[in-house]
Amino acid sequence: MKQLLIHNDNVNPELLVSFEHREALYPSRAEMLEDDFDMDRFFDSKLAALLNVSYDCIFMPFTLNNFDYLEFTGLQVAAHIRLSPYLNHCRTPLVFVGGDDPADVFKLKPLASLLFTHGIYFLGEPTVAAKEQLLEQISNYPKVSDAGYKLFLDRIQVDPPANYSSYHSLANEWGIKKLSELFKLTDLPNGVKEDIVRIEDRFKTNLYFKLLEQKLDKARNKIKNSEKIPPVLPNLDNARVLYIDDEHDKGWQALFEFLFSSASAKLLYYDAFKKGLKREELFQALTAFIDLPGNEVDFYIVDLRLCDEDMHEADPMKLSGMRVLEYLLKKNKGNQVVLLTASNKTWNLQAAFEVGAAGYIIKESPELNYTSKQTAQLFTELKKAFQKAFRNAYLADLWTFIKLAGVSADLTKLTHNNFSNRLLGEGGWLEQIFTLLSLDKSVVYKQVLVVFVSILEGYCDACFKNGTELYVILKDNSEVLVGNNNDEGMFTFDFGKYSYQLTSDDVRKEVRFHAALQKVSTFVKENEPRLLVKVVSVLHFRNNFTEAELEKVMELVFLRNSVAAHGGQQKVNESLRYIRMDDIKLMITCLKKMFV
């Protein structure tokens, strides 16, 4: 049998010279002092060069460290051999040299679980005679069977990297690696390609991820060429996005920059994370960055865990990302924040939505073992979350307007029928509109229209003086005569039909203003001006609405009466004309012109 001894000059000299093939394998002190030294990478590299020929049996002591026996690096080498298919010795019998009791070693090192799997042997007496006797026994079981290898994968215990930074980095890199596999490399820029190559190198050499790769069903997770998709984020033209993630440089930033720039969008990011920074210090630094002039954006992407203290935090409300979410929503209730995290804990998800997150994307991690379809679905969910956040970015502007309206001196004077309180009070009309639109459901648009016209009615009643003569009260409290109860006014309506009307009745479609009082038919009805008379009068003379703007408002009032209110009177073919986002934006524009 062709045998190999891996050692560090720490076995019986007589036994050592009995091996034709032997190799001292341990890093020098200089190598270990290098900033980027990694023991897994060292062993992987050395074993790749050493095992380029086939051996029938590989011997090694329990440890290769002559100064720290309890390091048990022999176990680490054995695990690399078992978990690295490209070394071509996964099933080769392994022999541990030394008199240690495996049960005692296991108490000290969980990785010693591999000692209780198939294909593992022990040479307790380090003599040539004992070796030959053991080789005769091994010759009867030259390779580990499929069942034995499966048992090995089930039993072996490999701890993830111990410190937060390493584990968090690897989890993030796994997610970006799997997501990038959805795309053809030729479709990605060089920066992203370089990140992917670097990540794949780390996964290839890290013992923990070697185990995960072997446990995963590779056929189930392999993304076929036919399943690859273009790396495109549609419907984000001119969006501005702020990305906050302590692992932004682990591939996510490069990929996001490419995706957003391809969508004609701009990605900003925070890159001043400092290792070891306390959670409160980090929070202060992040909020200061968010508030910097020029950092105004349409939506935010925030990682849930942003510092070491977050790693083992059980309370989701204390997590750095959750605190940033709370800050952004306290700053402006309409801010759109998408949380991006490797955590699939349901309580984190629930807490995020209770606070008001616009989206919650769970990055793929090795523990989740996504299928190729699930990876593709993740990208779809990512696109939808970003599109929703961008679509609803107007809510931040709407909330700013509501706050400004609340301190408007003009509005506090409008006390007729308690209008000011009904508009601005807690749960008032403006908050109702904001709450409805925050649901991001088109089915609420009709209700928004009903509230909008209620505001129009209340506002125009408060600003209209009805008597023998009809006046509009201007913002400086002066009055302008707009008509009288003899049907004479300063404007007239033109009648007609909308193309989507189901009825043949003409409606007031257009408005024309006159330089002086003229006869206007149906200006008043039973000594009470019609709603449209008040709306046109107040919005034109008090708020300077043009004729074109007024005609759009008149159409909204018609739609309220025909579609949204009174149970709907079936006057409109809703397949041709329904309440849409353009109408919502028009209503918001009107409200701003009326109240700010």
Plain-language structure description:
With 596 residues, this protein is of the alpha/beta class. The chain has 3 domains: 3-155, 3-Layer(aba) Sandwich (Rossmann fold); 166-392, Rossmann fold; 399-595, no CATH class. The protein has 24 helices and 17 strands. Strands 2-1-3-4-5 form a 5-stranded parallel β-sheet, covered by helices on one side. A 5-stranded parallel β-sheet has the order 7-6-8-9-10, sandwiched between helices. Strands 11-12-13-14-15 form a 5-stranded antiparallel β-sheet, with helices on both faces. The protein starts with a strand and ends with a helix.
CATH class of the largest domain: Alpha Beta
Radius of gyration: 36 Å
Within CATH, the superfamily of the largest domain carries the name Response regulator
Number of helices: 24
CATH architecture of the largest domain: 3-Layer(aba) Sandwich
What is the subunit organization of this protein?
A: single chain
Précis, in short:
The protein is of the alpha/beta class and 596 residues long. The chain folds into three domains: 3-155, 3-Layer(aba) Sandwich (Rossmann fold), CATH 3.40.50; 166-392, Rossmann fold (3-Layer(aba) Sandwich); 399-595, no CATH class.
Q: What are the main properties of this structure?
A:
single chain; 596 residues; alpha/beta; Rossmann fold; five-stranded parallel β-sheet; 17 strands; 45% helix
Strand and helix layout:
Layout: E1 3-7, H1 13-17, E2 21-24, H2 29-32, H3 39-50, E3 57-61, H4 73-83, E4 94-97, H5 102-108, E5 120-123, H6 128-138, H7 146-155, H8 164-180, H9 190-205, H10 207-215, H11 218-221, E6 240-244, H12 248-262, E7 266-269, H13 279-290, E8 299-303, H14 320-331, E9 337-341, H15 346-355, E10 359-362, H16 372-391, H17 394-405, H18 409-412, H19 419-424, H20 429-438, H21 445-462, E11 464-465, E12 469-473, E13 479-484, E14 488-496, E15 507-519, E16 524-525, E17 528-529, H22 531-541, H23 547-564, H24 581-595
Parallel strand pairs: 1-2, 1-3, 3-4, 4-5, 6-7, 6-8, 8-9, 9-10
Antiparallel strand pairs: 11-12, 12-13, 13-14, 14-15, 16-17
Helix pairs in contact: 3-4, 4-10, 8-9, 8-12, 9-12, 13-14, 17-20, 20-21, 21-22, 21-23, 21-24, 22-23
